Amino acid sequence: MAIGDKIYNHFTTYTDPHTGIRVTRLTEPDHTSHHMYFYNKMSTNDGRKLLYCPELEGERQLYLMDLGTGEAVQLTEGGELDDYGGMISADDRYVFYLQGKKIWRLELSTWKRESVYNVPEGWAGGNWGMSDDNRYLVIVEMLEASRPAPKKGEGWNSFAATCLAKPRCRIVYGDLETEAFHTVLEDNCWFGHAQIRPGDPDTILFCHEGPYDLIDARLWLVQSDGSRYRCCREQPNDLILTHEFWLPDGSKLAFVYRETTGEKAENIRMIDPDTLEEEIFMPCSPYAHFICDRKNRYMVGDAQGSDVPIHLLGKEKREEMPGEVKNDFIYLVDVEKRQERRLCYHGTSWLAIHGNSQDSHPHPCFTQDNGAVVFVSDREEKPCIYLVRVGD
Fold this sequence. Notes:
By secondary structure, the protein is mainly beta. Helix content is 2%, strand content 44%. Strands 1, 4, 5, 6, 7 and 8 form a six-stranded antiparallel beta sheet that branches. Strands 2-3-31-30-29 form a five-stranded antiparallel beta sheet, with no helix packed on it. Strands 9-10-11-12 form a four-stranded antiparallel beta sheet, with no helix packed on it. The radius of gyration is 20 Å and the shape is globular.
């Protein structure tokens, strides 16, 4: 199959038996499909088209799906594709993606593509982000010689090994208008999830990646010139802090705080990036990932029904009693009321059994028009994409 080819998805709608909410399965369970990483802009501004990745004929390529008809057009071809790293431009004219050590900009009207950044030889690039206007780009690069050799089918086994190896990593920042790039920060530490602050492209949020009990602390900030490299908060080794993101106006960064000992409190917290003042926003269910919509009216999170951290889960630890339903639900948070409610049951396995350790993670997020929530689950066989209309 080639760029411009079309496929057709057949939607299936059902009523969630636990909440009464109507859920639509967008892809078929006979092949793996997932949307982009939940930080990325993956739908057009009107919410009508979704950037996603199906695995067809043994290949993963990016497609743009019409959420009204199910028609999807192929955007990429060839190997070495970062199948979670695509994003639609602010004006909906382009798709940016990482393939073959290059970040490409594909014009959707002409299929013309051009490279906007080349990862240098000897380095591996990933965990990249852009400013709201797509002018500035930030990417994490790892020196390939400093990382443990990957093993086929190892799943989460490499998570701790990579962290303990203290690979040589750096954050690279660039201006796509001037084509000037520079290294912001370099250290023997596994960096991840670089995100440019909305409204302030000089401030970068990123994490020290790895198991919560092996890292020094997860949440970090740095300026684009390398100054003010600072830890946002201390992190004892019995505390999980995860999946941080910027609020849409850039005023704060949000994250989930989860205690693994004692009272095992779980709540949503926020930090002012200028003062590092921390706020406990509200208690919440055990979300693995969460994010807000563009207006910060709602948040959405995927609860994990097991107390075992995802990277430690094995098949034997996900055996459930017949008929038992764990707290594997998608939750909708009313930001104004500071209340959560169950949206629907995702029922995913969380297991790294489909080719990528992320494939069975729900990664819920909103379409750009705030009209729907999309998420992934392998509850019906292979990972599929599901959609819930927020108005419903």
